[in-house]
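Hi X.,

You mentioned you wanted examples for the new student's onboarding notes, showing what a folding record looks like when two proteins sit in one file. Here is a clean example. The first protein comes first, with its sequence line followed by its structure tokens.
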Amino acid sequence: MGPLSRCLGSPRCEENYSGREENFKRVEDLRGPRFRLCTTVMSRRVRPCLVIVALWFAAPVAAAEVELSELLIVSASGRHAFMVEVADTPEERAIGLMFRRSLDPGRGMLFDYRHDRPASMWMKNTYVSLDMLFIAADGRVVSIAENAVPGSLDTIASVGPVRAVLEISAGTVARLGIAPADRVVHRIFGGGG
């Protein structure tokens, strides 16, 4: 019995790979004679899963290689410096801080929407609790959401239109006394950084 007969009778598999036995794996040695599958069919089903697994493990590596920029929050309690990643593409904003297992104090992510608009966030696949600052185009903090729950699908929305959202470690807002109307200085607001 050759590899073609192990293709589970798939006409597509037999038609595409007739006579090319190198395209088949003898998987029955590993799983028993009932597990026979054309590798081409298997790869179409397995490939998306492998991509997800690769992204899962690559997220911490990618986080270590990102470009950071300086951001300053000016509040009644003083000036507070942070190093932030800027998420300014739809793809970067969609992933955000998902899959991160930690977020160092003094670090964060700034989601730049490029113009004022209502913004909403959620914590799906986010494993660390966060404080979120919703920031207008002039750098003024419009609203704040503290201690967002990891993994929550609840919507966390801005009170009004905002240019950006800053995510920092939970508890930072309370610890530093950050409040609405405080100022954020960063290059996207026309300031330094």
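Then the second protein repeats the pattern, sequence line and then tokens:
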Amino acid sequence: MERPHLLHMITPDANVSPFDVNMAYDAGFDAVIPYTHVAVKDVRGLVQDMIFSRSVNDVKRTALFICGRDASLALDMLDKARDAMVPPFEISCFPDPAGSFTTAAAMVACVEKALRDKKKRELKGCTVAVFGATGVVGGNVPLALGSALAARLLGGDRVAVVFFGDGAVQSGIFAESVNLATLWRLPVILVCENNGFAEFTPRSAHTTVERVSDVVAPYGLDRETVDGNDVLAVREAFARFLASARAGGGRRGVLAGSVDGPRGGGPVPRRPPGGRVQLPLRRSRDPADSHAAGERPA
């Protein structure tokens, strides 16, 4: 009789993700066994119970999935799991806390395809760095600061660029990040894609500052507001900012820009307070279509 394919799922959290359980069964595993509240020190014993309870041939039908939400902790668990292996008693181990590793792998695959199709290049021999974000609004801004700090320490003319919506500008983490970036004079460009709404909330309902770029005025940054529906204007402004950042320009080496106006490719709230969004108007001003037609906003 053929032995079943078993997937052991360990997590430091109170429960494993039902999403991951469903995916495991849909992938063809015969049984999925969850273990919760697992500490790093527990991993070795659990893994050796997994491998020594099956024959050399059957252990190949055993796998370990490391869940949770902490990527660093998941990697520590992976190291302990690998150390617990005793060849030929070995099993496949796959960490993917909150889907972060599979998401990163998918991004790398997309970049690889784009390079191959559009640039006739391969990733072979390249160094790939994946900077993850968070589900928290504005959470990607401090991550960009880390990238900019690394660029500064390594030398050269690399510049970090971070994109965010106008809702993120109202978060405390945005103000903290701008303050730190100016103090350390980091090579970073802040680009706000302002469509006038923080999801369903119009800008007028959560701030009295009309122009997003004015939010960073107290820090003395070079800043500019650009019509987001004018592809060439955005390109020209960004080129100026990039050249200045690479040259160490700006009062403290940090530059901020706001790409304003409704854009067809951006998020469009469906039921904002105070009325409905004029979808036909937004779609008629799609910047990609206007640029393709050789048109520029008046």
